[in-house]
Amino acid sequence: MLAAMLPALPRWLPLSALVVALTYGAALVIGWRHGYPYRLPFDAYFIAFMTIAVAVVLAGIVAKLAIYAWQREPRPLARLRAEPRRPVVVFVLLVGLMALELAALMWLKSMLPMVAGFWADPLLADLDAALFLGTDPWRLTHALLGWASPAFDWAYAAWGPVKTGCLLLIVFAPESPAKGRLILSYFLVISLTALVQYLLPSAGPVFWQLLGISDRFAELPYQPLVISGRDYLWADYQAGGGLPGTGISAMPSLHVALSLWVGLCVATYLPRAALLGWGYALVVMIGSVHLGWHYALDSLGAIIVVAASWAIARAAIAPVSREGAGRARPPRRPRRAG
Predict the structure, then answer these.
(1) Rounded Cα–Cα distance for residues 6 and 8 (Å)
(2) Least reliable range by pLDDT among 75-79, 106-110, 238-242
C-alpha cells in the first residue's frame, strides 16, 4: 500500500541513503568504542535543513496557486492535488539526507582529536617541505602571490555559498544519469573525507601554535577571515564540539574536494564554462595552503577522494547509452532468394 502511495524514486536516492547509513554505522562504532564523550550535532542540522525544505515546499505551493489565479483556474485546489508528487517527495528526502550527512561529518570531525589526536601534523609538514625542495609551500605562494592574499581569503570563504548554490541547481535540474552521478558523488565525497581523515589525523598549520606543536608557522600572515574562522573552531574544540560547521581536520581537505566536485558539476552542465569551475577549484587549492588552513598534500588526498567517488558514482549509475544497450534488437528481415 505504501509503495502505491509513494512515487517511484530515482536510483541515486536509495544509493545516497545507503552511503549516509554506512557513514553513521562507522560513526556509531567509533563513538561506542570511546564512550560518546561529546555533544551529538543532529538537532542543529536536521531541524535547520528540514525547516528550509518545508519553507521551499510552501513557497512552491504559493507560487503554483498564484499562477492558477493568474490563469483564472476555476478549481485551483483540485489542480494542485493533481500535480506530480514525485519532485516534492524527492526534494524533502534529499534535504533530509543532506542534513544527516553533514551532521555525521561534524560528528566524525568532533571525535577525531579524542580518538586519534593530531599526530600527523609534523609528518605532513615535513613531507610538504620535502616535496618543495626544503621550503614550506606557503612561503613560496606568499613570495609569488602575497599581493592576492585578501582575494584568496574571500574566495576561500565563498566556498560554502558556491558549493550550496551548485548543489541546489542540480537538485532542481531534470532527472538524468548525470544528475544522479553528481548527487551520489557529493555524498560519497563527504563520507570518504570524514572517514579517511582518521588515517592521517591532522589540524593544519593554522592550529600549530594553539596546539603547542611548535612555532614553525608563526610567521605565516593570517588573513582576517582565517583568524575569525580559526577562533570559532578553536572555541568549539575546547568546548568538546557540537556547534554547526565545526570540527578540526586537515587531511584530506573537504574544501578542496567539494571545490573539485563543483568543477565536475560545471563541466557536466556547462561544458563551455568548465574552465571557470576548474579555475575556482584551483584557487581554493592554492588558497588552502596560502592561508594556512592546509598542507599541500591535503589537496592530493582530496583529489584521490573525488576521483574514487566519481568512479563509484559512474559505476553505480550508468549513462543512458549503457542502460539501453541491453535492449533486444528487432529481428533482421530474411534476404530474398535469387
Answers:
(1) 7
(2) 75-79
Residues of the chain with pLDDT > 70: what percent?
75
Find out whether 252 and 197 touch, Cβ atoms under 8 Å: yes
114 pLDDT tier (thresholds 50, 70, 90): confident
pTM: 0.82
pLDDT bin (cut points 50, 70, 90) of residue 307 is: very high
Q: What is the mean pLDDT of the chain?
A: 80
% helix, strand, coil for the chain, step of 5: 70, 0, 30
- Distance (Å, rounded) from C-alpha 109 to C-alpha 106? 5
- What's the Cα-to-Cα distance from 50 to each of 12, 44, 94, 103, 259, rounded to whole Å? 20, 10, 10, 13, 25
Map grid coordinates 614550506 to a residue.
136
pLDDT tens digits, residue range 327-336?
444 445 545 5
- Nearest-10 crossing angle of helices 254-269, 274-290: 170
Single out the residue of 85, 86, 104, 84 nearest to residue 16, CA to CA. Answer: 104
Say if CB 298 and CB 284 are below 8 A apart.
no
Residues 6+ apart with CB under 8 A from 222: 206, 230, 291, 292
Exposed/middle/buried for 235, CB within 10 Å: 0-12, 13-18, 19+?
A: exposed
Element (H, E) at 38: none
Residue 261, C-alpha cell as written in the block: 566536485
Percent of the chain at pLDDT > 90 equals 37
Of residues 191 and 80, more confidence is placed in: 191
Residues 6+ apart with CB under 8 A from 153: 223, 224, 225, 226, 287, 291
For every residue of 226-278, DSSP letters joined together read: HHHHHHHHHHHHHHTS-STT-----SS-HHHHHHHHHHHHHHHH-GGGHHHHH
Rounded CA separation 194/23 (Å): 8
